[in-house]
UniProtKB/TrEMBL annotation:
It comes from the Eukaryota. Its main location: endoplasmic reticulum. This is Signal peptidase complex subunit 3. It comes from Strombidinopsis acuminata. The keyword Cell membrane does not apply. It is found in: Endoplasmic reticulum membrane.
Amino acid sequence: SRARVMHSFWQRLNALFFYTLSVLGFLAFMAAISTYFHQADPKVELKLERILLRKVYGPGHDQAILSLGINADLRSVFNWNVKQLFAYVTAEYETEANVLNQVVVWDAVISEKELAWIRSDFVVNKYSLTDQGYGLLDNNVTLVMNWNIIPATGLLTLSHAFDQVHRFQVPATYS
């Protein structure tokens, strides 16, 4: 006959804790996977209202102050697993030194679906468009709306509205 071994209180508590942890981990994984196939259809319209280009002599660079028109309906990006949305506009351009320059010119943190429709006819950029050199003068710039989804559970994701961009030519003279 075999002797029966009794498990101690701590062994039973350990087994219960890790079983519960495994179930919670599985549920978090299933929750994250449930929003993987969510199809968002954001509508983005960006436009340049005004640009002021100046030459900064000390460090030697161009600086552009932009006035933007932003109409971005990102409400369709939200689902039950979205905790926050980090939306930002980048200005992208090429120079002789770099094939791609990306500068964030405006951003916002959105924590509710109702606030995810950004409508403003005249927004001055939060961060100046600065080129370390003189590469902005008479250059082509593309404004792109981007957003990061911060989920309650799951992976962070990055999206771009590349099909709804705004292109403009920087003036050939300084203001």
